[in-house]
């Protein structure tokens, strides 16, 4: 009876398996992933679906979006799938009606709020923003409030929300969750904090001793510490902000079934293990964290509302510019 039941079960799966194996055609990915990560992602997908001809265009999220906008204007969008840095950009595309919902995507193992509730975009990672400090300095921060202390007057550097999507999400997250709201940023400014440059510039400044403390994404200082750099990354006790490197299907895709398969792969345990292999915190709650990170249950990610952040984007940028004179 068990063999019969298994045979019936296998037979019900056969059409799906055959259909998946027979996926073919072209699939174009636009992504802001580092080139090596993008190539690994494409190669892993092609190993499962060798008949799909996958190509990718890689650049920073602002440039990817500028290219995509120009294609929208011309009525000839080339991408099938978009894998970029932040959910706020995805939320904007969703509101514009540019994204196709993937309603059958299995998100059952993910906590509520990880992905778009209507399944237009899906988180693939958790890249958090916390504090980096130079280990040669006596000051060892443990809290966001520490960056406003006299001991680090003029010694704090951070990316500007006017130039960085992750920094804008960070500002929206902190001001929504910290009791002081935007007064926290006023305190940083009054303490001589400077804002500008990217995460690489922040790391270089702190590792080189130009500044003592910086605000930065997690993986950069953690990787550099492993190479011997005099830096330490801190997950502040109040919690951290996070960008989720979401993936979505454009409504204009010419190969929707292959695009859905790509999403399914990234959300699967295998796809999430790839994120771990690349050195990131996978969005999947059951996947281990990379070396150098504290246990997952010790990383507190602060709540973030992408739709609200999109609605408040202009206001948040203006408020930050007014505080820092940019």
From TrEMBL:
Name the UniProt record assigns to this protein: ABC transporter substrate-binding protein
UniProt GO molecular function: thiamine binding; thiamine pyrophosphate binding
Record-linked Gene3D superfamilies: Periplasmic binding protein-like II
BP GO terms, sorted: thiamine transport
Signal peptide start and end residues: 1-20
This protein's UniProt keywords: Signal
One GO CC term on file: outer membrane-bounded periplasmic space
